[in-house]
């Protein structure tokens, strides 16, 4: 009972944080009128990952509460993209990005295998996004206009997933132990 309540609190707090996750970054960029330190490639990869995930969920008719935060995150990323393009003097490219994203989104659902493949690559796309931001920071040696609060909130939303990773590892450990002892037990019986 208590663990269910804790899980619900974690889920709702994660949803709430996702609703405002990019706001600190948006405000930092608007205040500074510069996108120094914010990786455009990181943002584009993150946006691709979010689009793939929400498209997969919708394609397979998952209930909206399981992916509700992703359209909100996509909208926030689009605002960030427009701000980065604006402050870098490349706002005209936004039309090209819009066409590529809409075309890519439509392409995802042409065939079932395409969306399945894209979803299987989603974790790698998201990880590449984080590495692109790190590379930008390492190259410039300057956090520029990168919002620590946004990244802190992103860290919090992922911490909820740590429970599933830990449980997966523990389940795997139990499985391997069972297999080990089953093998050991069968070889002991053969010797008798």
Automatic annotation (TrEMBL):
InterPro entries: MannP-dilichol_defect-1 (IPR016817), PQ-loop_rpt (IPR006603). It comes from the Eukaryota. The chain crosses the membrane at residues 6-28, 40-59, 153-181. The keyword Ligase does not apply. It is found in: Membrane. Gene3D superfamilies: 1.20.1280.290. It is a multi-pass membrane protein. The keyword Coiled coil does not apply. One of its GO terms (cellular component) is membrane. Keywords: Membrane, Transmembrane, Transmembrane helix. Pfam families: PQ-loop (PF04193). This is Solute carrier family 66 member 3. It comes from Seriola lalandi dorsalis. The lineage of its organism: Eukaryota, Metazoa, Chordata, Craniata, Vertebrata.
């Amino acid at each position: 009972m208590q663990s269910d309540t804790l899980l619900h609190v974690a889920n709702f707090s994660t949803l709430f944080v996702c609703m405002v996750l990019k706001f600190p970054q948006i405000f930092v960029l608007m205040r500074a009128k510069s996108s120094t330190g914010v990786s455009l490639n990181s943002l584009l990869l993150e946006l691709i990952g979010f689009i793939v995930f929400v498209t997969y969920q919708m394609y397979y008719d998952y209930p909206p509460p399981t992916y509700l935060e992703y359209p909100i995150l996509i909208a926030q990323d689009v605002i960030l993209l427009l701000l980065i393009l604006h402050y870098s003097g490349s706002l005209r490219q936004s039309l090209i990005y819009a066409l590529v994203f809409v075309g890519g989104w439509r392409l995802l659902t042409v065939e079932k295998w395409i969306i399945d493949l894209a979803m299987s690559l989603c974790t790698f796309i998201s990880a590449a996004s984080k590495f692109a931001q790190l590379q930008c920071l390492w190259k410039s040696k300057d956090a520029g206009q990168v919002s620590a609060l946004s990244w802190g909130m992103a860290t919090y939303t992922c911490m909820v997933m740590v429970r599933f990773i830990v449980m997966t590892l523990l389940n795997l450990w139990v499985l391997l132990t069972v297999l080990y002892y089953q093998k050991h037990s069968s070889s002991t019986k053969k010797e008798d």
